[in-house]
Amino acid sequence: MLQRYKRPLLIWDIDGTLLEPLGVGRQALNQAFHALYGISGGFDGLDFAGATDHHLWLQAADSARIPPEEASNFFAVYVRHLRQQLSRTPLQPLAGVASLIADLSMRGWPLRLGTGNIRLGAYAKLNAAGLAPYFPGGGFSEAGSTRADILQRAADSHLDRPVIVIGDTPRDVDAAHTAGFFCFGIATGRFDVAALQAAAADAVLESLAEPTPFFDQVWQFGQEKARE
């Protein structure tokens, strides 16, 4: 039976999906690590694609034999360095993203974040890129130990409708499916269309430079799920 159509909740990754991945987060993490512990390059060599800030912290802290309980102090210093970095190297939305997000918001699509960034770090980046007002909340690194936990937190109070996660890595796809959600892969990060298809994304787009393919996909997907 056809149910009353509800627009899907769209949960967005940040780095490589909404914003150009310029490495400012890694730089700020390394700067904070050096400022506190005198260790250079503490986060070098770690895989940031689809990772969470807390998971990265645990890896760096373990390698340097720093108590994991230092996390709160570390992230406070990290945010200060991140804001300094952003004042020197402003982040830019990827091609088409600013107009697409503004259009989605204007049309009443519910938008949330689902990111491995800590909350303050996420909004520092989005503020720098002019996108923060469109995202009233979401799931962040503090929400849980896994990306799936983060996405489930982002979807709280919106489980009466389909949930689509938009991300650029196979980890985003896996986390979305683990959480019971759908995932659209956007090949604007390290992973190309073939890699995201191989990860079993429910739809894959090369980019968001042209909004029409994205609108067509989410609208069709939402209609199909309303009929199930």
TrEMBL record:
One of its GO terms (molecular function) is phosphoglycolate phosphatase activity. InterPro entries: HAD-like_hydrolase_sf, HAD-like_sf, HAD_sf, PGP-like_dom2. The keyword Hydrolase applies. The keyword Nucleotide-binding does not apply. It comes from the Bacteria. Gene3D superfamilies: HAD superfamily/HAD-like, Putative phosphatase, domain 2. Keywords: Hydrolase. GO terms for biological process: DNA repair. This is HAD family hydrolase. It comes from Sulfobacillus harzensis.
